[in-house]
Amino acid sequence: MAETVLRVEHVGMRFNLSKERVDSLKDYILKSITRQMKFDEFWALKDINFTLEKGERIGILGTNGAGKSTLLKVIAGVFKPTEGSVVHKGKIVPLLELGAGFDKEYTGRENIYLYGAVLGYSKEFIDSKFDEIVKFSGLKKFLDVPLKNYSSGMKSRLGFSIATIVEPEILILDEVLSVGDAKFRKKSEKKILSMMDKGVTVLFVSHSLEQVKRICTKAMILENGSIRSIGDIDTVSAEYEEMISGD
Ligand SMILES: Nc1ncnc2c1ncn2[C@@H]1O[C@H](COP(=O)(O)OP(=O)(O)OP(=O)(O)O)[C@@H](O)[C@H]1O
């Protein structure tokens, strides 16, 4: 019997967009205290409703600013939705901004523990997986170099290698299969595909429709923060192709 692992109900996300030009923190505090700051309310997500069954893989499509990353962040728990609720079963691993939990002053070795802690992994767990992380990242030679001397591709590789060390029930991927060089991209896609073989449920954002079609069983089109369509991959990707070719 199908098992629902994710339920998103009436989710809305409002941001306050500052209309003021603020040049410094002091300026911001002064303007806030004297109530000179004016904000525009902006709903990045409006009344989002859907469920996912175990093993389903959904591609989230939409043009720039449609709300794709915001939706993934709400599901990952990075943002608390202004309205509605997200209920999930099992561990979620979000691969959003890889390495957002890194500190550039620390070495690669230290950052493995730091980022691991940000992702909720214990020191003992990281100890047991340390060699595997380093091997996958291919960064052994740079382990004791501070992160500020890593290239952005190297940072992403390290982030990907740490984040994918566990086998989650729900995997959230935001443009992360385009990190690193071609060789690493192949390796990371292979790793994700092997996680999929084990029945992981996936939410996937990519600007490559080809990649979405290769990976996903379902798709959703977001438009101005609302769901325009949701359904099987072939129908929805065909609608999206038509939608973007009309621009
Ligand atoms: N922290 C924030 N504060 C204010 N507005 C935000 C914030 N994060 C996102 N937004 C706004 O919400 C809207 C949706 O942004 P989001 O990043 O979810 O879009 P997206 O579909 O992922 O776009 P892209 O394809 O360009 O990555 C945008 O208009 C963006 O400006």
TrEMBL record:
<dbReference type="InterPro" id="IPR015860">
    <property type="entry name" value="ABC_transpr_TagH-like"/>
</dbReference>
<dbReference type="Pfam" id="PF00005">
    <property type="entry name" value="ABC_tran"/>
</dbReference>
<keyword id="KW-0067">ATP-binding</keyword>
<protein>
    <submittedName>
        <fullName>Teichoic acids export ATP-binding protein TagH</fullName>
    </submittedName>
</protein>
<dbReference type="InterPro" id="IPR027417">
    <property type="entry name" value="P-loop_NTPase"/>
</dbReference>
<dbReference type="GO" id="GO:0140359">
    <property type="term" value="F:ABC-type transporter activity"/>
</dbReference>
<dbReference type="GO" id="GO:0016887">
    <property type="term" value="F:ATP hydrolysis activity"/>
</dbReference>
<feature type="domain" description="ABC transporter">
    <location>
        <begin position="28"/>
        <end position="246"/>
    </location>
</feature>
<dbReference type="GO" id="GO:0016020">
    <property type="term" value="C:membrane"/>
</dbReference>
<keyword id="KW-0547">Nucleotide-binding</keyword>
<dbReference type="InterPro" id="IPR050683">
    <property type="entry name" value="Bact_Polysacc_Export_ATP-bd"/>
</dbReference>
<dbReference type="InterPro" id="IPR017871">
    <property type="entry name" value="ABC_transporter-like_CS"/>
</dbReference>
<dbReference type="InterPro" id="IPR003439">
    <property type="entry name" value="ABC_transporter-like_ATP-bd"/>
</dbReference>
<dbReference type="InterPro" id="IPR003593">
    <property type="entry name" value="AAA+_ATPase"/>
</dbReference>
<comment type="similarity">
    <text>Belongs to the ABC transporter superfamily.</text>
</comment>
<keyword id="KW-0813">Transport</keyword>
<dbReference type="GO" id="GO:0005524">
    <property type="term" value="F:ATP binding"/>
</dbReference>
